[in-house]
Amino acid sequence: MNKHEGHLLNVHLNPNVSGLKPSATVAINDLSNELRQQGKEVYKLGLGQSPFPVPKPVVEALQKNAFQKDYLPVKGLRELQEAVAEHHCRTFGIETEPEDVLIGPGSKELMFLLQLTYYGDLVIPSPSWVSYAPQAKIIGREILFFPTSIENDWHLTPEELEKLCHIKKGSPRLLILNYPLNPSGTTISRDRLKDLAEIADRNRVVLLSDEIYGKIHHEGQHESIVPFYPEGTIFSGGLSKWCGAGGWRLGVFVFPRLMRWLLDAMAAVGTETFTSTSAPIQYAAIRAFKEGPDIDDYLKRSRRIVKALGNHISRKLEDVGAMIRYPHGGFYIFPDFSSFKEKFMTRKIRTSEEMCRRLLEDTGVAMLPGSNFGRQPEEMTARIAYVDFDGKSALEAVKSVPEDRPPNEEFLKTYCRNVLKAIDRMIEWIHT
Ligand code: GLU
C-alpha cells in the first residue's frame, strides 16, 4: 500500500449522495445501448427521448450560429429571453417581460438550482418524474410525497391539495405539478387547474409547473395553470420534448414578477456553476420559440403520430387486462398490471422492479418500473416510453394520411414497428 492509498480508500461521501444511484431514465438507456452493442435485440421503451428530428429551420439556425463562441449572460441571450417572453405571452395570454425568463442547460438543471435556492419543503405527487425527489435528497430538502390514483388520472385533486396545505401549515413549500404527466401522459382539465390554483394561492404555496410536454398535447390544446395563479407559479419548459432536442440541453423557466428575487438568486448560483448555456444552441432556440407555419406543421404531424400510437398500444394492453388511462399528451403510458399479480407470484415476480427486470431479460423489452416514479414497490405499474421508432420517416409518411383520419394500424405497423412488436412481446410474456 503506498502512502496515499489509505487516505484515498477512506470514502468521504456527502451523506446526501451516499447510496445515490444513476438516474433510472439514464441508467435504462445505458443498459439498453450496452445490450444492443452485445448483439441482443432490445426494444427501447425506457428513456423518454423524442423520436422526431429537430425541425429543419431550427437545425439551419444552429448551423448558421456554429461560430458563436462567447460566453453569454447567465440568465440567457437577450434575444432568446425576448422570444421566450413573447411565446409565453402569445400562448398563455399573460404579460411577460424578457427579464422574467431564465435560460439554462436543460430544465433538469434549473429545477435543481431552484430546489437549492428556494428554502422550503418539496411536495411531489406520485407518480412523478424520476429526478424530482433525488434532487431534493441531494440538496437535503424535506420531501412530502402525495400519492395520486388512477381513478383521478394520476393527478392531485383539489381536495387532496387542500388537505396537504394543512400539513405543517404555513411552512414554505414548493409543489411540483407536471401535465401532461410523465409517466402517464394524462393531463389536468382547465376547471381542475383553476381549482388547484385557487387553493395554492389561498395557502401561499409556490408552484413549479412543469409543462415540458405541453406542446405535444395530442389535440394541441394544452392549458397552463399560469394564467390562474400568475403571482405564484414558476413555469418550466424547454426544447427537449416538442422540438426533439433532448441532447441540446436547453431549458427555460418563466418567473412571476414578484419572484424576481428567486430568479436573481438562481442566476447568481448559475454564475458559480454553469456560467452560461451553450451559445449556438441559444441562437437556434430563438428560431424554435418564434414558431411559424413550418414548426406548426411539424408539431401537428408529431401529435397525430404519438396520439394514434398511444391510443393503439393502450387499447392493446387494456384488452388483455391491464388498467390504463389513455394519454392526452407526450409519449408515455403508465399501465397497471396488478390483475396479473397472482400469475407473476408463481414466477417469483413480486415487485414492479422485478417485473421490468424479468421482462427485459426474457424479451428484450426495456421499460421502467412504477417504483422509480415514487409508487409502492408491490404495485405492478410501469412506464412505457413509446418512442422506439424512426420519427423522421413517420413524420414524412403521415403527410399522406388524410387529416380527418388518424394513422391506422397499418401505418403504425410500418412506421412504429418496434413499439408494436415490443407490446406484442410483452403481452405474450404476460401470458406465458
Ligand atoms: N425526461 C426524460 C425521461 O423521463 C428524459 C431523461 C431524463 O430523465 O432527464 O425519460
Kindly list the characteristics that best describe this protein.
432 residues; alpha/beta; Aspartate Aminotransferase, domain 1; Aspartate Aminotransferase, domain 2; 7-stranded mixed beta sheet; 16 helices; binds glutamic acid
In short, what is this structure?
This protein has 432 residues and is α/β, with parallel strands linked by helices. The protein contains 16 helices and 12 strands.
Structure notes:
The chain has 432 residues and is of the alpha/beta class. It folds into 2 domains: 24-49 and 294-430, Aspartate Aminotransferase, domain 1 (Alpha-Beta Complex); 56-291, Aspartate Aminotransferase, domain 2, CATH 3.40.640. Helix content is 43%, strand content 11%. It contains 16 helices and 12 strands. The protein has helices at 5-9, 24-37, 56-64, 78-92, 107-117, 132-139, 158-166, 190-202, 260-273, 279-290, 293-319, 341-346, 352-363, 391-397, 409-415, 417-431, and strands at residues 43-44, 101-104, 121-126, 143-147, 173-178, 206-210, 233-238, 251-254, 332-333, 365-366, 368-369, 382-385. It has a 7-stranded mixed sheet, with helices on both faces. Helix 3 (56-64) packs antiparallel against helix 10 (279-290). It starts with a helix and ends with a helix. The model has no long low-confidence stretch (mean pLDDT 96). The structure holds glutamic acid (GLU). Residues 23, 25, 47-48, 108, 129-131, 182 line the site of glutamic acid (GLU).
